[in-house]
Amino acid sequence: MPVLGRQVVMQQLHLLSYNIQAGIYTRQYREYVTKSWQHVLPHREHLHNLNRIASVLRGFDFVGLQEVDAGSLRSGFIDQTEYLAYHARFPYWYKQVNRNLGRLARHSNGVLSQVRPFAITEYRLPGLPGRGAVMVEYETTDESVLAVCIFHLALGRRARRRQLDYLRGLAAHYHYLAMMGDFNCDCDSRALRDLVADTDLRGLDCELKTFPSWCPRRNLDHILVSKSLRIIGARVLDYSLSDHLPVSMKVALPEGVRLAA
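RESULT FIELD:
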C-alpha cells in the first residue's frame, strides 16, 4: 500500500558503477605517459568523450562515478558530475570532492539518480586524505531504507584493508544495501573476501573484468548487494571510454516493497 504523502516509484533498480578517469580516453598502457598532461591541462577530446559517456549512462536508475573532476583547469572548469547528469537526463545529482587542488584538479565521486533521495551522507575513509564514500538513502514503502554507497578505495593494501573494515561498519546499519565502486582489488583479495564473509553482501563475481578497458584482465570494479535484494543480472559493459569498463547490476526489492519518493 502506498505511504500517504509519498509517490511509489519502483520495485527494481538498475545500477551502474563507472570510473571515468576524468573523461580521459585511454586505449593502451603507453597513453598513461603520452597523455599524462591531460590530467593537468584541458583537451577538446574530454568534452567529446563525456558526451559519449553520457549516452552510456542513459537508461540506468542510479550511477556511481569515480575519478570525476568537479570543475578545474583540466576539465575546462566543467563540473563533470553536473554535466553528465544534464546530458544523461538525471534529475538528481551529487558530488563529493575528496582531493581539492584548487584550479588544477578537484578529484571527486559523483552520484546520478532518477529517484529523489531523502538523505545523502559523506564519509572520509581511513588512510591518507583524498578517499571518501557517499551514502545515498531512499525511503521504501515498508518503512525501511534502501542505501547505495559509492567509493573509490586506496591503491595500497594496508590502507584498503582499513577502508574495507570501515565500510563493514557502515553496512551493518542497513537492511537493503548496495555498495559499488572502484575497489582497486580483485575478487581474490583477502580484505574484500573478509568484507563479504562478515556481512550478508553478495555479487562478487570474478568473471566481471573491468581493467584495463582495452584488454580487461582484472575485476577492480564491483557491485555488492545485501541478501535482502534479489540480483536479476550483472554484467560489464563493453564501452572503452576510460581505462575502466563500467559494471552494471539490476536488483529487485522484496515482493510488495517499492521505493517511495
